[in-house]
Task: inverse folding
């Protein structure tokens, strides 16, 4: 009975992902065909398939989805494997305890352990509770989703093999995460940021709203009891399937809103805001927070704004989104105090906004045509 429910759940997950994509794909194909005319007695139906707005929407939406899909698959599989095979104890051992080296080591951990941003909050929370210094834990939480190799690869591909955007995203992401981590570490003690002292063993057995829906926020110490390859593969597939649903729905929503914004809003108004060195950054940071797109695919959405928004605003979008968004805020709210979350978000906003302003006013465009 349980197996049947799991199969039904997986089928529902895949259908919920595929139907919107197939619907828009069929619509897009129909738009490429010449207009059809059906003549009936006294009635003539003309299907207007050359509608530029609908065609533009479909093109943008599909281009984001189709280009991002391979990176979603690779990212979710790698993230699932990391969550299963790598424990928090391993991460704690490889990160230096020295203040500077610890922050730098935490910032660079993402290059080795590509953890998705939807899983990073539960992992970072447990690391802090297990004794990792707060400033190192915050740096780890903010930088790992940016330094994820899949994220860097998707950024490189999305921006037409532009290595400068990849370097500036990674470098400024590291610097920003270290600054924010040390700011928060100087303000708070790790014993004062949690709502209550809940036993972590109890949390492990009771899934809360704040855990990632993919379940990847849990350590799988029971894996050691399963010595056969089949059980390991099944667990990886289970993680990947559910995480794909969690990530997939956000990329679909984000792609939809991005395409809608660029086709419904008149271009002159987009350019009016997008070319302003300050307002463009505020708008893109707001989008990053609300869209809550996975860091492995956000570059494809950011790419669609090239030529319409400033380079600084696009860089701010690429750095701010992986650090904090609405879904990660909800995860944080289940364990951390509200005042801590507000100050953390404010620190992230301030640093990312400053980075965007500096990029704009220093004239860096990273090879983008604006």
Result:
């Amino acid at each position: 009975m349980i197996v049947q429910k799991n199969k039904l759940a997986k089928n529902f997950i895949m259908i919920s992902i595929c139907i919107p994509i197939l619907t828009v794909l069929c619509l897009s194909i129909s738009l490429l065909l010449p207009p059809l005319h059906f003549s009936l007695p006294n009635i003539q139906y003309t299907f207007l398939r050359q509608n530029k707005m609908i065609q533009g929407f479909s093109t943008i939406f599909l281009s984001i989805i189709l280009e991002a899909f391979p990176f979603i698959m690779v990212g979710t599989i790698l993230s699932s494997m990391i969550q299963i095979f790598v424990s928090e104890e391993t991460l704690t051992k490889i990160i230096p305890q020295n203040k500077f080296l610890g922050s730098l080591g935490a910032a660079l951990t993402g290059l080795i352990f590509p953890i998705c941003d939807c899983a990073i909050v539960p992992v970072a929370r447990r690391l802090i509770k297990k004794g990792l210094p707060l400033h190192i834990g915050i740096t780890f939480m903010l930088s790992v989703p940016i330094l994820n190799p899949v994220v860097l690869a998707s950024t490189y591909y999305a921006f037409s093999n532009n290595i400068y955007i990849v370097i500036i995203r990674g470098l400024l992401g590291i610097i920003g995460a270290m600054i924010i981590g040390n700011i928060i570490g100087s303000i708070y003690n790790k014993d004062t940021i949690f709502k209550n002292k809940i036993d972590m063993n109890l949390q492990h057995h009771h899934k809360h709203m704040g855990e990632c829906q993919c379940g990847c926020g849990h350590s799988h110490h029971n894996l050691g009891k399963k010595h056969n390859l089949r059980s390991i593969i099944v667990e990886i597939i289970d993680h990947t399937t559910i995480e794909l649903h969690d990530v997939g729905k956000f990329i679909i929503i984000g792609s939809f809103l991005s395409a809608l914004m660029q086709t419904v809003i008149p271009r002159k108004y987009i350019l009016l805001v997008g070319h302003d060195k300050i307002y463009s950054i505020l708008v893109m940071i707001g989008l990053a927070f609300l869209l809550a797109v996975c860091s492995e695919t956000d570059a494809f959405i950011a790419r669609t704004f090239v030529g319409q928004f400033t380079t600084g605003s696009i860089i701010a979008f690429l750095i701010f989104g992986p650090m904090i968004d609405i879904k990660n805020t909800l995860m944080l709210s289940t364990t951390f105090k509200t005042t801590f979350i507000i100050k953390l978000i404010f620190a992230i906003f301030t640093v990312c906004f400053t980075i965007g302003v500096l990029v704009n006013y220093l004239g860096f465009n990273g090879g983008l045509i604006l």
In short: The longest helix spans residues 229-264.
